[in-house]
Write a structure and sequence with these properties.
Pfam families: CHASE, HWE_HK. With 552 residues, the protein is of the alpha+beta class. 44% of the residues lie in helices and 20% in strands. It has twelve helices and 20 strands. The strands form five sheets. Strands 1, 3, 5, 6, 7 and 8 form a six-stranded antiparallel sheet that branches. Strands 11-10-9-13-12 form a five-stranded antiparallel sheet.
Length: 552
């Protein structure tokens, strides 16, 4: 009996020790998993919010760059930009054109507002109080046009925002700093309207030092913050820049309210800072569940089970050991997955930033050197279509490269039906594909669109060969437009010349030359194959796309 009691006591003690150890391990592991999941979800959310804000600010800058101020005050100023701004994003509440008017321009502005069909063309304050033009001695900012037009928004043109503290401060800063600026949170459209922010981009005419006005976009705050539903791990609050200790929160219906933080109130689990409109915004993240309490409850349950089944200590020990091993492997898999996901996001950010930089360069150079806005618009749309085509091809191949012949599809370049393509079926890298796609578009878009000297359309041949072996392989590309002369071919644009002579060769580490023969126009490009087919880029893509395997 003594021996049995000793064995039972030993089993009971061993069961208690094992149960306590299991409870301790489960507590730490549950707490670690919850913290990792919450931190990762917060980082992903903050990154998405920053990307969303960057897109909205880019829209304002592009719209102000495309805007052309007339020599006289005209209605419907946003008409030429309507298709462009809706093509980018359609979640803005209202887009507006705020002109900076001199005192002698107020009468003409009233006539223009009335002629555009707005019901109240009188120049007035932001709260609809009339303004006597004779009393104005300094330029004022007046809303002249907006999109979209509805019964609610049509009453807004004619308002001056010089006495509106929030909008006036935003426009003054945008005018002085000559860049896009965001306002403080403010009710949109009306006093009890949805809370949001306004971003204003100054429109500075060529050769001028002061802006002629501002292109503005208003956004609801709830959509910018990407507020979460009931299934999310946290709730999001925006620190109110208007008052110390204030926060702006949005419910599931997108209704924004203000609350004040207190010293004894809940504190955010984490804070993140995002940039928008030339200022920093701080987001506070509040966890919806108490990770420590849940981990303690889980540990108590495990301990209770262990104390209740002391007679089966061996089975309990095996179960705990197996459970610990499973949990450890899950943690390792999750950590590996988090690292892989971080690498994928970093790679995606790198590629997206590269594409955005190329598009920004295309837009800037096309509009800077386009003497005819119609020609510049066609070239801009075509160049962006060329970039879109190559990105689609890269996405279809999981960024493993693009078949060179696929860059000559009719959806990517003009006159594709007149191009005879010959050459080995090689797959070029993502970087080379982007440069070659723009290069082919520039060559095709400037080919002769009329009749040549012999009364025929030019016949185009695009061919390439690969010479050499091993590390000495060289890529040779030749473009020839037959039945074309220097007198009949449309001259290349400044951007096209830079792309043909410098950008494309330098991107591929090669050289290029162009010249006219007696009956054709020729462009030749030579580059080493190791830059055309970038194996390091392909290896990096294979690495981050490989499945995550649990550690052994």
């Amino acid at each position: 009996m003594v021996r049995l009691g000793f064995i039972i006591g030993f089993i009971a003690l061993l069961g208690a020790l094992l149960s306590g150890l299991a409870a301790y391990r489960v507590h730490d592991q549950e707490l670690a998993l919850d913290r990792i999941a919450l931190a990762r979800a917060i980082d992903v959310h903050a990154s998405l919010v920053q990307d969303r804000l960057t897109e909205r600010e880019l829209l304002a800058r592009v719209a102000s760059g495309l805007f052309r101020t007339p020599s006289v005050i005209k209605p419907n100023m946003l008409e030429p930009l309507r298709s462009a701004i809706y093509a980018f994003k359609t979640d803005f509440v209202v887009a507006g054109w705020i002109a900076r008017l001199k005192p002698n321009e107020l009468t003409a502005a009233q006539a223009a507002i009335g002629g555009a069909g707005f019901p109240n063309p009188k120049i007035r304050t932001f709260d609809d109080k009339p303004i006597n033009p004779a009393e104005i001695t300094q330029p004022i900012d007046v809303l002249l046009d907006l999109e979209p037009r509805s019964d609610e928004t049509k009453a807004l043109p004619g308002r001056s925002y010089d006495q509106d503290q929030v909008r006036s401060a935003m426009l003054t800063r945008a005018r002085l700093e000559k860049r896009s600026v965001a306002s403080d949170p403010i009710p949109l459209l009306r006093g009890n309207g949805p809370v949001g922010v306004i971003v204003a981009a100054p429109v500075i005419p060529e050769g001028a030092t002061e802006p002629a006005g501002f292109v503005t976009f208003s956004y609801e705050l709830a959509s910018l913050m990407l507020t979460n539903d009931d299934m999310s791990l946290f709730s999001v609050a925006l620190r109110d820049p208007r008052k110390e200790g204030g926060e702006l929160v949005a419910n599931d219906q997108g209704i924004v309210s203000t609350r004040m933080t207190t010293a004894d109130g809940p504190t955010p689990s984490a804070t993140r800072t995002v940039s928008f409109g030339g200022r920093d915004w701080q987001l506070g993240y509040y966890a919806k569940t108490n990770s420590a309490r849940r981990a303690e409850q889980t540990a108590i349950i495990v301990a209770a089970i262990g104390f209740a089944i002391t007679a089966m200590v061996c089975g309990l020990f095996g179960y705990v050991a197996y459970n610990n091993l499973r949990l450890s492997r899950e943690i390792q898999v999750r950590i590996g997955f988090e690292r892989r996901l971080t690498a994928v996001i970093d790679e995606l950010n790198h590629r997206v930033k590269n594409i955005l930089a190329v598009i920004q360069s295309i837009v800037t150079r096309t509009l800077r050197h386009g003497s005819d806005i119609d020609v510049a618009r066609e070239l801009l749309i075509g160049r962006i279509h060329a970039m879109s085509n190559v990105v689609s091809l890269l996405s279809e191949s999981q960024w493993q490269g693009v078949k060179l012949k696929g860059l000559f599809e009719a959806r990517a370049i003009p006159h594709a039906d007149r191009i005879a393509v010959t050459g080995p079926d090689i797959a070029v890298s993502a970087r080379a594909a982007q440069s070659l796609s723009l290069l082919f578009f520039e060559l095709a878009s400037h080919s002769d669109e009329g009749l040549s000297l012999v009364g025929k359309h030019p016949h185009i041949t695009a061919s390439w060969t690969v010479t050499g072996e091993g590390a000495g392989e060289v890529f040779h590309f030749r473009w020839e437009e037959l039945n074309t002369s220097e007198a009949t071919r449309r001259p290349d644009s400044d951007f096209g010349l830079i792309l043909l002579d410098r950008v494309a060769p330098e991107a591929l580490g090669g050289t290029a030359k162009r010249y006219f023969t007696d009956a054709s126009y020729v462009y030749e490009l030579t580059a080493p194959m190791e830059t055309v087919v970038d194996m390091t880029e392909r290896d990096r893509t294979d690495k981050i796309s490989a499945p995550v395997r649990p550690a052994r």
